[in-house]
């Protein structure tokens, strides 16, 4: 990651105004969004929206042609181009031929994408943005930081400052008054403008209609008052049928601003008349700019299902910390990373793709059902293919693919870490490694890894056998969790097998775009884990579980090792996470808890992969309750802890404040114990609590459950 | 249906009234013109866009008031305090009005003045957007407008503020019995 980018992050996370405003907004958004969707089956709705959009994406060319035919039959002029520069030339030509001096604009990300304003201004045309947020950033000489709320990064004081300069009058930071100033300043511009430029939220092929969704009422003025209206629309806004507008309108305002409907929706089908009875000139520019190419890409075509609501930004733990500008000038946040890689260039996404911590929050709310984290991984993979792996990473991954050497190094680390170890933690590391322990202690590598300890645990001989897949953290840092797991399963009459050939699950490589390495890890593990022929393969690390149950097939398939797929599927079918298995055993009466003891409050932290990929969140809570704990929920219990595997090492400046939020939310509950099902989260949160000094025990569920089982 | 519509519309800041007949609606308008002190001075006028409701109403029954005009122009609209127009449909689940605004005068009176008063046949309130989409035909209605509450923004610090570029107030008058009205 380059220095300039790191500096940008640093400035953003230390901008209290920014993080304060975004933090408050994201908290309120979650509540308001849920309220806006009350009584609506969101899954059903987003299936419909994704269906309408993906059907359109599969047929963009034909839809664009149909749109053109129908809009032109109504009297509009439609200009189609794949080249952003031609869009600008076309608009300038229209303007010059009609003697246009001034333009008013309503919000359009497509025109931001092609930098239309500076082009028109350079050619002597005055351009006024009229969306309040866009006007603010135009006055500030900035770019939008959020596609729905472009000026969310500015305070009312900053806005008052900008407006004061514009109207040459000292204005107080009084929001209603500032809004009035904007109304009064922009009204004459609307009335005088020769041309109005808008974007378009939807374009309907069947009817040649464009749909504009706004709140302020500026788009109505932009499309009514000037004699020329130019709409610049990306071809991904095309849909086939008029009836498809309704479901998109159900989802867009709810997801964007938690409104049931925005104040204004305008459906324009062909030119109307001007007030004097003359026909209005309506130009619709359908801009491609690599969208068709995207539609042909088997992975990225789903990104065209985006309806530009911005909800992926609103729920993103990284976005609310760094804001939009760290992501770039135009499209920001998760979807913005993907759009930048395509509409701009892949290289431009090199730094920003690394901002995604893969927590999956956005996948839960996206009305277009886009798997944004997966597409960002795909960007990573392609960057690695294009540019090769960075030297150090390559060295690390080649070690990870050599199990003996990798495990040997982990054992050596147990000794090497000694000088910095205090109790079970590494508290301070020397020199350039120091930032790794900034705000968080790292676990000391165990003296005796789980694989060595397991040899000393005598296994009962049972008909039912489970293979335990430990994963690196449990094997080498937290062997005691593995020991607890074995004890638990033994009590249920299950014999545990531990194939020593098991190795890293490949997640670190995968999340760094090194698919070849991850595929090799997958193949090695499949061989090792299936050889034992047990009924289950159980893991107590959700990231590993997801690797075994979901990622192995996908990774092997994407590198073309399809011969492995049947075995990968066999392994996936056997894989189960600990809480799900234990819950099943308890339900079947094969495990039961000691009764009659009140163990007090425990709060539960949902790990990203467990909650959102494996959809397991009730089971661990129910088990803790049955074991005698009282589960007290923390605020944002399923928000990422900031660990994200190597993320916390690459971007400690982001990881640390996310962790601090988590620690505060845990402490707020007053519970003396926080439980979770992921050793990675334990490492992050336990390390954070250690440096914080708070008296809160951080435990993997398995450690809390094992002592409570009846003999 | 009306109650659901009213609840939603009021929820987003619209003012909702209900009258039994067209005559009552005309009375309401007279009262409103008085209350808002509509007059001939700049910024205090009212404009009434062509409305099917007025078809067949005897000339003598159409409200007259100083400052009220039926002759819509952009300059007058820019100066008007109140714009009156007719909505074709209501949407109960969002509290929205749906207006066929192909004629520019319909948009001028509902976007430039500070107050927009909309007349809506109560019987034309539909359950949701999907039902409205079945009734609308973009081939004949070139500019369909959904209006839900007054103009709003939250672009400064996410604080909801009413009346940016459009009307600050949306007043809806639902008319139960639209005698001679064109809708169903």
Summarize this structure as a short list of keywords or feature phrases.
heterodimer, A: 711 residues, alpha/beta, Rossmann fold, Fumarate Reductase Iron-sulfur Protein, Chain B, domain 2, 6-stranded parallel beta sheet, 4-stranded mixed beta sheet, 35 helices, 21 strands, 50% helix, 12% strand, elongated, B: 184 residues, 5 helices
Explain how this protein is built.
Chain A: InterPro entries: 4Fe4S_Fe-S-bd, 4Fe4S_Fe_S_CS, Cys_rich_dom, FTHF_cligase-like_sf, Helical_ferredxn, LUD_dom, LutB/LldF, NagB/RpiA_transferase-like. Chain A: This is (Fe-S)-binding protein. Chain A: Pfam families: CCG, Fer4_8, LUD_dom. The complex is a heterodimer of chains A (711) and B (184). By secondary structure, chain A is α/β, with parallel strands linked by helices. Chain A is built from 35 helices and 21 strands. Chain A has a 6-stranded parallel β-sheet, sandwiched between helices. Residues 429-434 of chain A have low confidence and may be disordered. Chain B has 184 residues and is of the alpha/beta class. Chain B has a single domain (2-177), classed as Rossmann fold. Chain B contains 5 helices and 12 strands. Chain B has helices at residues 2-11, 22-35, 74-79, 104-111, 129-135; strands at residues 15-21, 45-48, 68-69, 80-86, 89-91, 96-100, 115-121, 125-126, 143-147, 152-153, 161-162, 169-177. The longest helix of chain B has 14 residues, at 22-35. The mean pLDDT of chain B is 92. Classes of the chains: A alpha/beta (711), B alpha/beta (184).
Tell me briefly what this model is.
With 711 residues, chain A is an alpha/beta fold.
